[in-house]
Amino acid sequence: MKLKKCQITDPECHLDVIQEWHGDLESNIATLIENLKDIKNHSRAAKSAFSEHYAKTVELTKAKTRFTYEVSHELKAPLASVYNILNVILDGYLEKDVKRQKELLNRAKVRINDVIKLLNDLLIFSHLEEGTGEIEIEKIDTAELLSSLTEEMDTFASENNIKIDWNLSDGLPHIYGNPELLRRAFANIIHNAIKYSNSGNQVKVTGKKENNSFLIKVKDQGIGIKKKELTKIFNIFFRGENARPEHKKEGMGLGLSLVKRIIDAHGGSIKMKSKLHKGTTAELRLPAIQKKEK
Ligand SMILES: Nc1ncnc2c1ncn2[C@@H]1O[C@H](COP(=O)(O)OP(=O)(O)OP(=O)(O)O)[C@@H](O)[C@H]1O
Ligand SMILES: [Mg+2]
After folding, report:
1. I need a surface site. Which of 30, 135, 141, 249 has the fewest CB within 10 A?
2. At 213, which helix (H) or strand (E)?
């Protein structure tokens, strides 16, 4: 700022200079205040980004620890049981009872098979979770895929005194996908609907083409899911309060987390609606191949 020069005897000129200087000072102070406000806002944003990041890191670390705990827990019981069976046989307690030895070895075989299934599911889960591994894709006839499931699902349903009502429209679309993974996803959803139903209930499976998607809807009249739990059901190892072993519902909480990742990897979506004690509806949508694409 350049101040004007005044005669020593000219008080009015001095007053002008002082006012000009004062005005400048005021505007500088205002700019300074704005800058300080900016700095404060930036540091607030940085602090909240940091807290968010920190909370996420803590959450991930906890999830990792829980994951290790759950997997170890699930592996420990069957492996301990196989170990005990082998010890009984090797120690010669059943030397003369070949029939009993066979029974125990068969039991061990079933437990080992469960472990292999679990490890297989975990491998698929981490492969999809990383999102790096390719999945092999081919053109799938959804009608064929669903009909390959009906016998197995009907058998499981009738063992539980449940009836499946299959509503599969004519002209079901083709989709691109991995048949093994998608079969697993559909089977898991129908399996849940049967497992969480009450004896005598009905499960309705609808398959149709809707807009540009293949839609499969599985509706049951079973135990339902608590509203506050609905947001958690795709988390690995999550099990609803009413779905635990004390209610005679076996499981690990792995099925839906796998289904979600399979459907996501196929560019589809999954929605679950539920009312406690009334029933649950799962809706899976996958992009259909349009006629001219075939
Ligand atoms: N159709 C359903 N009706 C009621 N609850 C359901 C239904 N489907 C899923 N759930 C709830 O969601 C939870 C997670 O389901 P998910 O399939 O992942 O695990 P799970 O069935 O408990 O065990 P797993 O599938 O590993 O054998 C279940 O424990 C249950 O609480
Ligand atoms: Mg399940």
Report:
1. 30
2. strand 213-219
184 CA → ligand 1 middle, Å: 14
**Could you tell me the residue range of the domain that residue 214 belongs to?**
138-293
Q: Whose CA is nearest to atom 8 of ligand 1?
A: 192
pLDDT tens for each residue of 88-107: 999 988 888 999 999 999 99
DSSP-assigned beta bridge partners for residue 205: 166, 218
Of 66, 100, 133, which residue is a domain's last?
A: 133
One domain, residues 126 and 146: no
What was the pLDDT predicted at 172? Answer: 96
Q: How far is the CA of 234 from the centre of ligand 1 (A)?
A: 9
Q: Which amino acid is at 43?
A: S
Of 186, 233, 242, which is best to mutate to test ligand 1, by the most ligand atoms within 8 angstroms of its C-beta?
233
The Å distance, Cα 205 to ligand 1 centre, comes to 17
